[in-house]
Design brief:
Distance between the termini: 31 Å
Largest sheet: none
Number of strands: 0
Order of helices and strands: HH
Number of helices: 2
Helix content: 40-55%
Shape: globular
Length: 48
């Protein structure tokens, strides 16, 4: 079983949380598809 503890004691924005999940190994395409299916938005994931 894998688990993650997320304790944003100073706060965290949505883009920061998504970026952290992708950096930890989440499939960027699946994250993008989930976000696009939840709302009428177009999401682009790039690494800078």
């Amino acid at each position: 079983m894998k688990a993650i503890l997320f304790d944003p004691f100073s706060g965290a924005s949505g883009d920061m949380m998504i970026a952290c999940l992708i950096d930890l190994g989440a499939d960027a395409d699946k994250v993008r598809e989930a976000m696009e299916s939840a709302a009428d938005v177009e999401v682009e994931v790039t690494r800078t």
